[in-house]
Amino acid sequence: MKTRIGILTGGGDCPGLNAVIRSVVIAAAQRGWATVGILGGFDGLLQPVHARELLPEDMDGLLYLGGTILGTSNRGRFTAKVGHGAVRQIDPAILAEAKVGFDQLELRALVVVGGDGSLTIGLQCQAAGIPVVGVPKTIDNDIGGTVVTFGFDTAVSFATDALDRLRSTAQSHQRVMVCEMMGRYAGWIALHSGISGGADVILLPEIPYDIEAVCAKVRAREAAGKHDSLIVVAEGARAKDGDFVTTAGAADATGGAFREARLGGVATQVAEQIQALTGKETRICVLGHLQRGGVPTTFDRLICTRFGVSAVRLIAEERYGRMVSLQPPDTTDVAIADAIGKLRTVPLDGDLVRTARALGICLGDR
């Protein structure tokens, strides 16, 4: 009987998911294996099972197609992260039902493509008897065990382009523009794009900000004859002695389960304070889910392809409970248990922060 492996995508979508799917399917076919796509995330393993076989000849066009042809979910019965990242144990009965679906599909192993939450679920599935191999995905770039996750480069490229556009309109109207972008607990997107886009202020989750320091930067630019300012704010940025700014409750109407807190709105808070304290006309732009969509960059396409091939190799070697990892110049692997639950944040003494400060960019703390 032909070997059959499964693949699913979990958590938030991001550019490159389809490129990973394509790579896994083609690499598996080269070994004479069949690949089954689980639809709608982990819930697709529950009864009635929702899955379909993925054929190599159907993979044309997926390399550059955004989103995921398998669908995904970050809420419901398979929710491992709640509130602000607290770990939740999946109901053992749900895991047992997923194992029944896995066996029903006659799969040898399951490739889980996801971030910290999805890989946490994957590890719980592994403990329930489902052999799992992980592929790290998140535009926030905050998973341990790998130098970079796919989707991050595409998100940064889009955010930088947005900042270029915002600068021109800020200059035209001599305004302060505050741009909010994703980054729950790690400010990698904000810092990379902020430096690349010439931001004057970058507010990160790692550095609680003082609004007076931000306003001082705006006033200093004004005094120097520069009547516009560009401010980048990660959605998880917090004022000193402040809390996360959230937009909605976490209750899930599908069954009383919970999801991670939904962040958003800090740009509005910052903009209102700047306008009140400086008198400068201030506008906001929230990039939101625009960062998750679109065509993946060349860099992301390449690491997605390498990650997919590596995942199939791990299955061939029966090295389950592992996550593929980029450690330049090679793709390698680490234990999933060593990668999850260890948020990879921006180091405050690292080169990126030192670069920003050397350029006179205000990080909100001085």
Q: How would you describe this protein?
A:
The structure is a single chain. With 366 residues, the protein is of the alpha/beta class. It is built from ten helices and 15 strands. It has helices spanning 17-30, 92-104, 116-127, 152-173, 188-196, 211-223, 266-278, 298-316, 336-339, 351-358; strands at residues 4-9, 34-38, 51-54, 81-82, 86-87, 110-114, 132-136, 176-181, 201-203, 229-234, 246-248, 262-263, 282-286, 322-327, 330-335. A seven-stranded mixed sheet has the order 3-2-1-6-7-14-15, with helices on both faces. A four-stranded parallel sheet has the order 9-10-8-13, sandwiched between helices. Strand 1, helix 1 (17-30) and strand 2 (34-38) form a beta-alpha-beta unit. Helix 6 (211-223) crosses helix 7 (266-278). The longest helix has 22 residues, at 152-173. The N and C termini lie far apart (65 Å).
Summarize the structure.
With 366 residues, the protein is α/β, with parallel strands linked by helices. The chain contains 10 helices and 15 strands. Helix 1 (17-30) packs across helix 8 (298-316), helix 4 (152-173) crosses helix 5 (188-196) and helix 6 crosses helix 7.
Low-confidence stretches: 249-257
Count of helical stretches:
10
Helix-strand sequence: EHEEEEHEHEHEHEHEEEHEHEEHH
CATH class of the largest domain: Alpha Beta
Give the quaternary arrangement of the chains. Answer: single chain
**The number of domains:** 2
Roughly how many Å is the radius of gyration? 22 Å
**What fold name stands as the CATH topology of the largest domain?**
Rossmann fold
Helix content: 25-40%
Major sheet description: 7 strands, mixed
- Strand order in space, largest sheet: 3-2-1-6-7-14-15
Beta content comes to 15-25%
